[in-house]
Fold this protein.
Amino acid sequence: MEPLPVFDPVPLIRDVHDQLLTLLRGLRPEDWLLPTVAVRWRVKDIAAHLLDTQVRRVSFQRDHWTPPPPADLIEKPADLVEFLNRLNGAWVEAAFRLSPGVLLDLLAWSGAALDGTLRPLDLEATALFPVAWAGEAASTLRFDLARDLTEFWLHQQQIRLATGRPPLFEPHLLHPVLDTFMRALPHAYRGVEARDGVCVGVELTGEAPRSYALLRDGGAWKLGLPGLETPEARISLDPATAWLLFSKGLAREEALARVTLRGDLRLAQPFLGVVAVMA
């Protein structure tokens, strides 16, 4: 098994943002009010949320602005999810009064400010916030920003799906995003017992295929690119299914219809519960 490739998320974040502005500028007035797979949010709400995530990052990363702590104690993952949902919801509700034109102006500013903030940073430094869905208590800034890349890409996919626009499946973006999503697998499989040497293979199909190996080694699950392993279980799905699955955008029954599971189902079925977002 080979390690996942190391990549610089900063220019990719700017690329995804530039494509977001192009997408939003091409929307019709009625498109902004279309419902999305984010359930509670319309297209305009997702655009407002993306603005929130960017200005928050600039505030604490560039200006070292520390927001007040949560009013309630964070003791378990569900507490963190509830806090983040309240935080995100408060911003989106406040943004109801902003027009799409104002949101576009603000996003143009925030994208440039974010890019200027991120470019000088040491990607191997410790991030202010760990990537909780990967089970990490501390994360590098590289992984933290890769997590941001997946969020920006994911929310743009939700807008593209809602408005009938083509997805962002160019390999130079899709592979880093999927590599990052897949890093949720070892944590998601932590309760799945197997002997050392057991391997679960994952295949992403489509025009830019990608394969992964989840290997049991030293009593833990480790993720990488496949080598000479022979998987006891194989999972196959396309990118459109993958991003919906990892963001809780698919019911289990629909996921079962869209994902191919082969081999030892005890090892394959936990994949259907993998989540690579805080939700």
